[in-house]
Amino acid sequence: MRSRRRLLPRIPKSDRLHGIMSGQARDPLAIGLRLVTNLGTPPYRLATGVRNTLYNLGVMPSKPLGRPTISVGNITAGGTGKTPMVIELVRRLQAMGHQPAVLMRGYEPAGLESKKGSDEAAVLRGSLGGDVPVMANPSRIDGARDVLADRPEVSVFVLDDGFQHRRAHRDLNLVLVDASVPFGFGRVLPRGLLREPIGNLKRADQVIVTRADRVDPDELAELDQRIERLTGRPPLAHARHHWANMRQGYKDLPVEYLANKTVLGCSGVGNPSDFEKSMREVAGKCVGHIVFEDHRNYNRTDISGVFHTAEERGADAVIITEKDWVKWRKKAGGVKSTLPIFRPVVQMQFIDGGEAVDHAIAEAAGSPEPQPTERET
């Protein structure tokens, strides 16, 4: 009988990576990797520093997109919650009477109606529906132009992952800081998770702390104080990732449906540890969590292995993320298993500061009536 490879790691990959970056892992491989990645940090810092200096001096100017623009970004690599935050802000803008559009990085040759593209684009389209254009383009400038050519009624743009994309002018620069891993172990890529030096957080107009429920009050207060020292103001709001309901295919079910289920989790996201914590909180029993790299391009062997592990461990169901489902849905049908697949619908829920967020985005977005671009006047 052909042996199957073991998919369930003893240590989640994210925990292993964090152990290496934080310095907690002391084995020879971890020490060696820290030495190697230390060599890559100075060139990365230099490149980002030169680029930011050129923007700060106006040598590389930012260009307006033709509509008021709100940017949602972060200063660290990994999952801080940008996608659910973008969804929440879009819905709040819609409630104010705006017709928002989302601009994100990526490439989609078929334009607005493309079914291809990034996992995040597919999640955004599935959550926001056809009324909200979601444009993926390496250039947010070109993406905005294409959206307005097709949907001139758009009144405001929301940039997904826009903090480092300084070429696009923004009227509100929001940065998300994950309370569970706030500053990427204090080191710039590749040694740590910071996408640029921590002092650059001062470019943010406002900071929102996500996963604020995952740390104790004293730790959160200390984080708030550090953000205030870096930016000159305390965080605008604190938020948490809330599992609103579960989805099986196109059917929505209450989260409580899992209370008596034995489940196996599988994820390929930026912060798998938080996914696992939430899964263990809602499921009757969790028999493991298979962790793949972020943006994993799953194949049938991966999916078959997940189902095999789940069945071997006596699971009633498999839980994956909405982002992973984008890759799974076309391939899972070819895998023989009777186990159902559930995925959480994650909402960004403000613990405090929701009204302040509304005020900030309303001030940045202005009137819901779209203003004509230069080409329209």
From TrEMBL:
Gene Ontology CC entries for this record: plasma membrane
UniProt superkingdom: Bacteria
Keyword terms, alphabetized: ATP-binding, Kinase, Lipid A biosynthesis, Lipid biosynthesis, Lipid metabolism, Nucleotide-binding, Transferase
Record-linked InterPro entries: LpxK
Function noted in UniProt: Transfers the gamma-phosphate of ATP to the 4'-position of a tetraacyldisaccharide 1-phosphate intermediate (termed DS-1-P) to form tetraacyldisaccharide 1,4'-bis-phosphate (lipid IVA).
Classification via PANTHER family: TETRAACYLDISACCHARIDE 4'-KINASE, TETRAACYLDISACCHARIDE 4'-KINASE, MITOCHONDRIAL-RELATED
Protein name as annotated: Tetraacyldisaccharide 4'-kinase
Organism name: Algisphaera agarilytica
